[in-house]
Each structure stands twice: as structure tokens, then as C-alpha cells.
């Protein structure tokens, strides 16, 4: 099977295996060429006392350059990842792990918490790092290692690790082009290691791509830079400092309906036209049409992320780690509408007096517009004025849907009713992680540590009268006519943990026993929505975590783990008029995670099986006092309640084999995730499947490598059907619609991917080495599918029930990588 002189090194990540590989290599005659075929056992979680997977550097480099880090996770069992774009997609990005969504999964970069993963006002992880610098991704499908810093990790934890400065001076560069105008350039320079133990690197990347539907009027742009300095302090001690800068602007994709019956309240539906989200590409001058122009909606963000990682060895057996960090973000989202939403008192900013109520708002539309008469003439029509507590049917149909109206002749245009709405956000996030670890001669490894984080945030919503809607949605700062949100948050999170890892039975049995305690507090004010300040403080209590690993023999190992987890109360409980009284007594969400598994590793082969159970409790559900009202208005009356939860049960199977020229990898996951209690206000009944969580997922990949530097990879990803709405919904809103809306399911789909590369031998143009040419084709057969459900946009109301994002089409990328 293997050529003469071949060393097969199975690096499971343990010191003993590495030593065995070195011994085997030394035994081979130096006269013979040596090919090392390496199977990394950590891909299957080897040596971990819980469900765990690793995406290694080689796998990362096989993906398209500039790929969103979250999309790397599509190959991990138990995870569903999708977006409307082959590379990224901030608003349309969907992530599900064992039935829980990305706001219930912990994410970190180099162990530093990512924070919220909301696209607007939060931070997607691709803004804090460049894919070209990722060295590995550690994925725990259960609850993560003890001490992982997160306020939202109810089920699963993901840590992206970035590479350190090289000891050798030189640089790396990437140039990529692709469909839809994709352009990417990346360059990194390493100083090499100086005599004083200091090494450093700096990098910069630029990316640009257009949206794919229609005439591709949307744009996504990103500029990113990193600087890292590493100081080797000797004897295993070091300190590294990293600063990252990111600036992005994005016109994303809109949600669509599944069925044509929903068409009157959606711009597009998958059943009738699966190739568009209904947004338009050209400016008409009619605000009722141009509100759907892709360029009038999007987000922009500028962020600076910095952290220090100090590791100090204390003798031979102890280590102190301290990681302070700071993250600043500012940005906004924008939206264009054919009306004005203004306060009834005419003031731009109406602070609420003590004991008073917020000033109500009205929507005004169709001023200076004409109605078409029976003979085809134009009859002046009065403007329409709607109070903000009008029914959802009126709000959805009266202003935006202008089918029965015609524009004035151009010569008669006056001051049109059109508004550009800007939602601004700003955040300062700072914190510190610290841990003291020591190994005792008795076989105990002790860890104690803590995490503290303070976040100060602000969110505003400003309304500007558009300067000239016949030309664009542009506005002047002097045209600000209303501020309906001015929200300020200050939160503090703290965590303490302790663990004892015991090695017993001659290191065949490993027992981890630990506990975590978390506390979270927040203050919130919004002067135009209420007077004063709201406060909330919750604690987790003791969260026990226990895991055990038993090495049956050299080939087999068995693990079992259990943990209790905690999620802080979300902002929605505070905001607007929400939960003015109901916030008292709201409890934090918790989950109980249990998993057990067995792994077999023999030569170039490996198999793993995990069974798991997640009980997500105290789910905070919306209890909207007026389900037909506009819940985004300050006039809405919304409350929240701990009601119900989610039960998730499943099994995951993984297999991998590595040979001299061939690598095989496959996994399958079965997940039964359903709601456990009726939630009448949301239309949920016990037993209903969790939105967006497919029961069946599978991934398979085969890679062929030649000794001449060629590589060819083909893979297939299968996602089974998944619920898109909560339940059968009685129609009390849509005139002429069906009496009931049945539960919707997103259809199953299979995607085929193809990639290849060729590495040039020797130098290129006399200055470049390790030069590689690569291509990637995503969705080879151009399958049309739904990539995910906008569960945060979905309610039991038929107007907003079942909102989906289109999947990305066939996309080709070509990349050249080189070292200099």
C-alpha cells in the first residue's frame, strides 16, 4: 500500500504518539525518500473526554480564500451552516448545532470571547480575524471546555486559533478572483525571530464581491489588518500582543417566503421563483418601488480588536495565563421606506418626563401622489396617516404596497414622502481572563480561573427625510426629523471556575471534575421610550461539569460527559416598552448537556460515534400583547415569560481514513430537536420541531494527492428537510387567504463541491516558493435551495411566518498562494 521508505505517522496529539512517530522516522534509511502520511486523530476528538472535532490548517487551506470562518464548520458532524452567499453573508448567515442557533453557541478567537454574533449590533467572527491566519478550529458540540468564556453557550463552543509569527523572515500572499466580481488580495510579512526572542508579523487583506440575484447591484467590501508581536520569555513563558482592524460594508440578501400563497406580503417566494429574493437593481424614482432597491439596505461596521496573551511558567509544574482584551465597534444599518414615521408632537427628540409616557408616532405616506382614475387620468390623493398601533395588515398594506397608485408626472413632483432610516450602534467591550494551572505528582492536574467583562453599548434609530428620491436615497444630516431609539446598555459579566483532572489506572482512565459560577448584570436606559433606568442582575448558581475518558486499549477509547450551562438574559427583555413589569421574575435560560461516545483508531483508519441529549430549559418566549401590532414601535406592548424549552436528542457518526495518496472523510448526524411545552403566543405546541433544525445531515469528502503536487477534492453535503414555521396557524389577517396556514418545511437538498490545487516545485520567478494554484467550485450543479430560516424574524402571525434565505448558487473561485 505504501511506497518503500514511507513513514506512516499517526499523530494523535499525545506526546507518546509523537515520540513513536519520531522513532519510526529515525529507523528509515536516510538514502530513501520519506513520505509522511499523517492522520490527525484530533479530527475525531482523540483524547478528549467530550464530543470534540478539529479542523486543521491543511483542511482550512483547501477552502476558498476569504471564506467566512463559520462556513468552515459545514464539515463538522451535528452542525448546519448556510447563507445566501458562497463566501459569507452576515445577515443571511445561519448556524445550527444540535438544534440550537448561533446566539446559543459560544464563539471565541484565540480563547477571547467573540461576544454577540448578531450581524447588526453584534460581531460576526470573520470581522476579528483573517481566514488566511487561522491555524485550526476547535469545535465542541457539547458545552466546551471548563472555563470557556461565554454568556450564551447553552450548547456547543467554537474556538478559532490564529497562527503565531514565523521564526523565519519572509512573507505570504494570496490573490483570488471569482464569480460575481469576487476579488481578494492578502499579504503578510513576518520579521522572523530576533536574538532577543521577539518575532512579529503584519498583514492586510481586501475583499470585494457582488450579490448574485438579478443584476448584482449589491456590494460587499471588507478591509482587514492584523499586527502581532510575540516575545519568548524562555522556559516555556511568552507574551504576545495582537491588534486587528476591520472595516466592512455589506448589502445582504432579503428573506423570502416558501409558498406563493404568502406572496402578497413578501417580495418573493421560493415556490414561484427560486432564483431571486425580490430586491430590485435599478432606481426608478418611485419610493414605493425603490424601497426594495438592494442598495438602500445594508450594514457597515468598523472594529478594532486587541488582546494580550501572557503565559508564565511557575517552576516545572505550574503555569499562569492572563489575557486582557479590548474591542471597539461602531457602525450602522440603513433602510429606505416610502413614508415618514414621526412623533405626533413634531419634535425630533422627545424625552419621556418622570411618570409620563413616550410620545406616540404616526406613519404618513402618499403625500403629493396621485391615484389613477378609471379613464387613466391622475387624481390627487390625500396622504395616508396611520397610528403606529394600527394592525399589521394595515401597516403592511397601506403604505408600502402602492399598486393602486401612480406617480405624479415628473414635472409635478414635489416634496415626496421618503425616508432613509439609520440604525447606529457603538460598543466598547473590555475584559480579562486568568488561569492558574498546576500538575501534581499524585496524578492530579488542577485549574482555577476567572473571567470578567464590561460592555458599554449604544443603539440609535434616526429618521432622515430623503433629499431627492427621484435620484437616490441620499439625505443630509440637517434633514433629521425623528429619533425613535436612543438606547444605552452597560453590562458586567463574571465567571469563576475550578477543575481537577485526575489520571488513574496507569493513565488509562481520566476523570475531569469541575464547576463554574457566572454572574451577569445590566443597566438600560432609553430616554425617548421611558424615563429613568432599568436594572437586572442574574446568577447561574453552581454549574457542575464532569467528564471521563477510558482508554480500553491502544485502539479503543470511551468517553462520557455532563454539564449544566447558563445564558444571560437577552437585551430584548429590556427594550422599548417590552417587559416593563414582566422582567421581574424572568430567569436566565439554562441547559443540561450529556453525551457519550466511543472512538476506534487503528493505523490509517478511525471511527467515532457520539450519542447526546440536551435539555434547554426556561426558554424566554415573547408574549406580545398585540400580536397584530408593530412590535418594533415604541407603542407596542410586549412582555416576556420563561415558558417551555427544547429537547434535543441525537447520534453522530464520523469516519476517516488516510493513505499515501488518498484521504476519505465522512460523517452523519441524526438530530431530534423539538419544543417541550405549549407557547400559545408564539403558536408553538409541545412536540413541534425546532425551526431550521434538520433531522438528518451528512457530509462526505474524498481527496486525492499525487507526489507531483496535484490535489483534487470532491465532497457532498446533504441536509434533510427542516421546519420553517411553528405550527398550523389560523388565518386572522390575510384577506382572501386560506383559513389555516399549514406548517412549512424547507426542502432537503444535496450540494456537491469540487476543488483542486497544484503546488509548483522550486521557486517561482526567482523570488517565490511554495507557490500553489487552486480552484474551488461551490454548489457544482447549481442546486436551488433554502439555506436557512430567519427564526428571529418569525412569529405566529401569517405576515411574518416562515421567512427564509436563499442558498448560494454555483460559484467558482481561483486562487494563487505563494511564499516570499
UniProtKB/TrEMBL annotation:
It comes from the Bacteria. SUPFAM superfamilies: Porins. It is a multi-pass membrane protein. Its main location: membrane. It is found in: Cell outer membrane. The keyword GTP-binding does not apply. InterPro entries: Beta-barrel_TonB, Beta-barrel_TonB_sf, Plug_dom, Plug_dom_sf, TonB-dep_rcpt-like. The keyword Membrane applies. Residues 335-780 form the TonB-dependent receptor-like beta-barrel domain. Keywords: Cell outer membrane, Ion transport, Iron, Iron transport, Membrane, Receptor, Signal, TonB box, Transmembrane, Transmembrane beta strand, Transport. PROSITE patterns: TONB_DEPENDENT_REC_3. Residues 51-145 form the TonB-dependent receptor plug domain. Belongs to the TonB-dependent receptor family. This is TonB-dependent receptor. It comes from Undibacterium hunanense.
Amino acid at each position: 500500500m505504501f511506497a518503500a521508505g514511507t513513514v506512516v505517522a499517526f499523530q494523535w496529539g499525545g506526546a507518546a504518539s509523537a515520540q513513536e512517530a519520531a522513532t519510526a522516522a529515525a529507523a528509515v534509511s536516510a538514502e530513501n525518500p520519506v513520505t509522511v502520511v499523517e492522520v490527525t486523530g484530533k479530527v475525531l476528538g482523540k483524547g478528549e473526554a467530550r464530543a470534540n472535532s478539529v479542523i486543521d490548517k491543511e483542511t482550512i487551506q483547501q477552502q476558498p480564500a476569504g471564506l467566512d470562518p463559520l462556513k468552515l464548520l459545514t464539515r463538522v458532524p451535528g452542525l448546519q451552516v448556510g447563507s445566501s452567499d458562497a463566501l459569507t453573508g452576515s445577515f443571511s448567515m445561519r448556524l445550527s448545532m444540535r438544534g440550537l442557533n448561533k446566539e446559543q453557541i459560544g464563539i471565541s478567537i484565540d480563547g477571547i470571547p467573540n461576544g454577540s454574533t448578531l450581524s447588526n449590533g453584534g460581531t460576526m467572527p470573520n470581522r476579528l480575524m483573517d481566514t488566511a491566519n487561522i491555524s485550526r478550529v476547535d469545535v465542541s458540540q457539547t458545552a466546551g471546555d471548563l472555563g470557556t468564556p461565554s454568556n450564551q453557550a447553552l450548547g456547543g463552543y467554537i474556538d478559532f486559533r490564529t497562527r503565531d509569527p514565523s521564526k523565519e523572515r519572509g512573507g505570504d500572499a494570496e490573490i483570488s478572483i471569482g464569480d460575481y466580481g469576487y476579488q481578494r488580495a492578502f499579504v503578510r510579512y513576518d520579521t522572523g525571530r530576533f536574538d532577543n526572542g521577539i518575532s512579529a508579523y503584519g498583514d492586510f487583506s481586501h475583499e470585494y464581491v457582488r450579490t448574485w440575484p438579478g443584476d448584482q447591484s449589491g456590494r460587499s467590501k471588507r478591509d482587514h489588518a492584523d499586527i502581532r508581536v510575540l516575545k519568548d520569555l524562555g522556559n516555556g513563558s511568552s507574551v504576545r500582543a495582537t491588534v486587528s482592524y476591520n472595516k466592512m460594508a455589506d448589502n445582504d440578501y432579503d428573506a423570502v417566503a416558501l409558498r406563493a400563497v404568502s406572496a402578497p406580503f413578501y417580495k418573493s417566494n421560493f415556490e414561484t421563483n427560486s432564483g431571486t429574493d425580490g430586491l430590485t437593481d435599478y432606481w426608478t424614482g418611485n419610493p414605493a418601488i425603490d424601497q426594495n432597491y438592494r442598495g438602500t439596505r445594508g450594514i457597515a461596521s468598523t472594529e478594532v480588536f486587541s488582546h494580550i496573551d501572557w503565559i508564565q511558567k511557575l517552576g516545572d509544574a505550574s503555569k499562569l495565563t492572563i489575557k486582557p482584551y479590548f474591542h471597539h465597534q461602531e457602525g450602522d444599518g440603513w433602510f429606505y421606506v416610502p413614508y415618514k414615521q414621526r412623533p405626533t408632537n413634531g419634535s425630533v427628540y422627545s424625552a419621556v418626563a418622570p411618570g409620563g409616557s413616550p410620545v406616540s408616532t404616526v406613519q404618513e405616506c402618499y403625500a403629493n401622489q396621485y391615484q389613477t382614475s378609471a379613464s387613466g387620468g391622475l387624481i390627487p390623493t390625500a396622504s395616508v396617516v396611520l397610528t403606529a398601533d394600527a394592525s399589521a395588515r394595515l401597516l403592511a398594506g397601506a403604505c408600502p404596497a402602492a399598486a393602486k397608485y401612480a406617480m405624479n408626472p415628473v414635472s409635478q413632483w414635489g416634496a415626496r414622502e421618503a425616508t432613509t432610516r439609520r440604525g447606529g450602534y457603538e460598543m466598547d467591550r473590555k475584559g480579562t481572563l486568568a488561569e492558574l494551572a498546576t500538575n501534581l505528582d499524585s496524578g492530579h492536574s488542577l485549574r482555577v480561573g476567572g473571567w470578567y467583562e464590561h460592555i458599554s453599548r449604544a443603539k440609535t434609530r434616526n429618521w432622515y427625510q430623503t433629499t431627492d428620491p427621484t435620484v437616490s436615497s441620499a439625505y443630509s444630516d440637517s434633514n433629521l426629523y425623528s429619533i425613535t431609539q436612543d438606547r444605552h446598555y452597560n453590562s458586567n459579566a463574571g465567571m469563576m471556575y475550578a477543575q481537577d483532572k485526575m489520571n488513574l489506572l496507569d493513565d488509562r482512565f481520566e476523570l475531569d471534575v469541575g464547576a463554574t459560577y457566572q454572574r451577569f448584570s445590566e443597566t438600560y436606559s432609553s430616554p425617548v421610550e421611558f424615563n429613568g433606568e432599568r436594572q437586572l442582575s442574574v446568577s447561574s448558581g453552581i454549574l457542575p461539569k464532569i467528564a471521563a475518558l477510558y482508554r480500553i486499549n491502544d485502539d479503543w477509547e470511551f468517553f462520557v460527559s455532563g454539564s449544566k450551562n447558563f445564558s444571560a438574559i437577552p437585551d430584548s427583555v429590556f427594550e422599548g416598552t417590552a417587559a416593563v413589569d414582566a422582567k421581574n421574575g424572568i430567569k436566565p435560560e439554562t441547559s443540561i448537556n450529556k453525551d457519550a461516545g466511543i472512538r476506534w483508531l487503528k493505523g490509517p483508519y478511525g471511527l467515532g460515534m457520539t450519542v447526546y441529549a440536551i435539555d434547554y430549559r426556561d426558554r424566554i418566549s415573547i408574549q406580545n400583547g398585540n400580536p397584530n401590532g408593530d412590535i418594533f414601535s415604541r407603542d407596542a406592548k410586549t412582555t416576556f415569560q420563561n415558558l417551555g424549552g427544547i429537547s434535543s436528542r441525537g447520534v453522530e457518526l464520523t469516519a476517516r481514513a488516510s493513505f499515501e495518496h488518498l484521504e476519505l472523510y465522512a460523517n452523519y448526524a441524526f438530530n431530534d430537536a423539538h419544543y417541550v411545552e405549549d407557547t400559545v403566543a408564539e403558536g408553538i405546541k409541545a412536540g413541534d420541531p425546532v425551526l431550521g433544525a434538520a433531522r438528518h445531515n451528512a457530509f462526505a469528502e474524498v481527496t486525492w494527492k499525487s507526489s507531483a503536487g496535484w490535489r483534487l477534492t470532491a465532497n457532498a453535503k446533504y441536509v434533510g428537510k427542516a421546519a420553517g414555521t411553528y405550527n398550523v396557524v389560523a388565518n386572522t389577517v390575510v384577506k382572501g387567504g386560506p383559513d389555516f396556514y399549514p406548517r412549512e418545511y424547507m426542502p432537503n437538498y444535496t450540494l456537491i463541491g469540487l476543488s483542486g490545487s497544484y503546488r509548483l516545485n522550486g521557486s517561482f520567478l526567482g523570488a517565490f516558493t511554495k507557490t500553489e494554484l487552486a480552484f474551488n467550485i461551490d454548489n457544482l450543479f447549481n442546486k436551488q435551495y433554502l439555506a436557512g430560516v430567519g427564526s428571529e424574524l418569525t412569529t405566529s402571525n401569517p405576515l411574518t411566518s416562515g421567512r427564509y434565505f436563499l442558498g448560494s448558487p454555483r460559484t467558482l473561485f481561483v486562487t494563487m498562494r505563494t511564499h516570499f
